[in-house]
Structure formats: structure tokens, C-alpha cells
TrEMBL record:
Belongs to the small GTPase superfamily. Rheb family. This is GTP-binding protein Rheb. Keywords: GTP-binding, Hydrolase, Lipoprotein, Magnesium, Membrane, Metal-binding, Methylation, Nucleotide-binding, Prenylation. Transmembrane segments: none annotated. GO terms for molecular function: GTP binding; GTPase activity; metal ion binding. It catalyses: GTP + H2O = GDP + phosphate + H(+). SUPFAM superfamilies: P-loop containing nucleoside triphosphate hydrolases. It comes from Branchiostoma lanceolatum (Common lancelet). One of its GO terms (cellular component) is endoplasmic reticulum membrane.
Length: 183
């Protein structure tokens, strides 16, 4: 069997959108209701996607706003990004777009592996970003899109699986060579 691949992923977005909650739900399978702003936390988890094992290093970053300086470190050895907004906050939806612009600016890339995530779907009454709006933005970005609830463990695993697939897709030919099995 092919050896596990090491992949580093950064979870980014505005404050309090649920970056830590999504990460902790994914890694530990639990939801913590209290709010404790993150400076930076790193988690590890091994997952299997399409028969291949991945050792994921997940960086749960500090909440950003439109004025934050994008931390240079997150452009260096990060393979992909989970960009999270809350479906209950238009501001967070705007911030996620600013973060992507900065990311593309700093990396000089036309595209980087991203999954766009609208979190807190369980807060039905507070929703201000319709699903179609998020979907439309992801189509514009040509990236996968998911709506999730870290609280209800809805679509949490698939967010990270989709990102892995997107990383592999964008790595294209080079990666395929590495995976190549001679029968
Ligand atoms: N109802 C609901 N609440 C959520 C969900 N995800 C997170 N929360 C709550 O939202 C608040 C912020 O969650 P965090 O996971 O700390 O958010 P964060 O984006 O990591 O915050 P910063 O570290 O400050 O950037 C907490 O009170 C969570 O319990 C969700 O899916 N549904």
C-alpha cells in the first residue's frame, strides 16, 4: 500500500465563525459551546480518502478581519485552505473574500486548493447568507463548497475530504506519478 501523504491545511476566516469548532469536531468528535478565541492551534489526524492515507496537520488560525495582515507563514508549506464564514454573518462572508484575495496575492498563484464553507446552518432563524449565494461564490472561485454545522456534526468530515481531493486534483500530474502503481 502507498505510504501516507503528509498534508498541511489551514482553517481561516473571520472571528467566531466556528473554525475551532469545525476542527475539533473533525479531530475529536465533540462540540464545545463556549467561545474561547484562538491564537493558533495545531491538530493531527489521519484520514483515508479514495484508498490513500493522509496524515493531516490542521492549523486552526486566529480570526482575521479585512484589515489583518495575512500571516506569511500560512503561505509557505500549507497545501490547502478551509475558508470559513458563518451563514449568520454577512461580515464574515465579506472577510472570507478578502482573505482569498490576500492569499492569491501573496502566493502569486492563480488558484490554490480551497474549500469554501458556510458554517452554523443549525441557526436557521439567524441565517443571512442564502445557500445559493455561497454556492455562487464557490463557482466563481472554481472550488468545492459546503455548508456545515459544527454543532450538529453536519458535513464536517466531508469538508476536509473535499479539500484533500482538491489538493490532489490541483497537484495533478506530479502527484499521480508518486501514486503510480505498476501492475
Ligand atoms: N450554533 C452553532 N454554534 C457554533 C457552530 N460552530 C461554532 N459555534 C459557536 O460559535 C462560537 C465561536 O466558535 P469558535 O469555533 O470558537 O470560532 P472561531 O472561528 O474558532 O473563533 P476565533 O478563534 O475567535 O476566530 C462558539 O460559541 C461556538 O460554540 C455551529 O455550527 N452552530
Amino acid at each position: 500500500m502507498a505510504p501516507p501523504k503528509q498534508r498541511k491545511v489551514a482553517v481561516m476566516g473571520f472571528r467566531a465563525v466556528g473554525k475551532s469548532s469545525l476542527t475539533i469536531q473533525f479531530v475529536e468528535g465533540q462540540f464545545v459551546d463556549s467561545y474561547d478565541p484562538t491564537i493558533e492551534n495545531t491538530f493531527n489526524k489521519t484520514i483515508k480518502v479514495r484508498g490513500q492515507e493522509f496524515n493531516l496537520q490542521l492549523v486552526d488560525t486566529a480570526g482575521q478581519d479585512e484589515y489583518s495582515i495575512f500571516p506569511q507563514a500560512y503561505t509557505m508549506d500549507v497545501h490547502g485552505y478551509v475558508l470559513v464564514y458563518s451563514v449568520t454573518s454577512r461580515k464574515s462572508y465579506e472577510v472570507v473574500q478578502v482573505i482569498r484575495d490576500k492569499l492569491l496575492d501573496l502566493t502569486g498563484a492563480q488558484n490554490v486548493p480551497i474549500v469554501l464553507v458556510g458554517n452554523k446552518t443549525d441557526l436557521h432563524m439567524e441565517r443571512v447568507i442564502p445557500q445559493d449565494e455561497g454556492k455562487g461564490l464557490a463557482e466563481q472561485w472554481k472550488c468545492p463548497f459546503a455548508e456545515s454545522s459544527a454543532k450538529e456534526k453536519d458535513s464536517v468530515n466531508s469538508v476536509f475530504q473535499q479539500l484533500i481531493m482538491e489538493i490532489e486534483r490541483q497537484n495533478g500530474g506530479g502527484q499521480q506519478k508518486e501514486d503510480c502503481t505498476i501492475l
